[in-house]
Amino acid sequence: MRDRKSPAGEELRSSDMHSRTKVRSCAIRRATPDDAETLSRLAAATFTETFGHLYPAEDLAFFLGDAYAVEKQRVILSHPDYAVWLLEDEGVAVGHAAAGPCGLPHPEVQAGDGELKRLYVLASHQNGGWGGKLFDAAERWLLRDGPRTLWIGVWSENFGAQRFYARHGFGQVGGYKFPVGRILDDEFILRRPA
Q1: In a domain? residue 180
Q2: Residue 2 lies in a domain
Q3: What's the whole-model pTM score?
Q4: Residue 158's domain is classified under what CATH number?
Q5: Tens of pLDDT along 42-66?
Q6: Which structural domain, as residue segments, surrounds residue 104?
Q7: What's the CA gap between 34 and 191, in Å, rounded?
Q8: Could you give the count of Cα atoms lying within 13 Å of 94 in the half-sphere of its Cβ?
Q9: Total of domains in the chain
Q10: Which of 54, 84, 129, 174 could form a disulfide with 31 if both were Cys (CB 3.0 to 4.6 A apart)?
Q11: Would residue 170 count as lying in a domain?
């Protein structure tokens, strides 16, 4: 898993201009295993909203059914080495972040390194700083036991996310292919040393 979406909607679309002017009273909370179905639906919705147009329907459906299956989300939410946060607007999940041990295919990954696995906010709630707040929650959790190297995988054409992570001290150190069905996306591996 890796982040494919720019936190807080770094790419501004004209359709987002109206949502920027609304004052939102969202809250961030740590997700529990009881949130598995909500997380599954939200993860599929945010990925589809952001990247669905890039893939043939059958490849997208295969990826969503596998990567965001309810039982996979329940396993993640039950595992002590992983954490997920939900961004909620009046109790409705509109964004999420996930973190855990680094699983990126890079030869310098060490035991104990952490990874920001996902960070998505629905377009209706972008540009209000909520992506940055989700990032902050994940970063605090990843560094709860002290400094350690952090990693992020990001789509090679997600320039807004790359700029955001660069501002937070991450630099590109490699790449790999990320499968979405039969499609293989070029991904960058970003790292921030301890």
Answers
A1: yes
A2: no
A3: 0.86
A4: 3.40.630.30
A5: 999 999 999 999 999 999 999 999 9
A6: 7-192
A7: 32
A8: 20
A9: 1
A10: 84
A11: yes
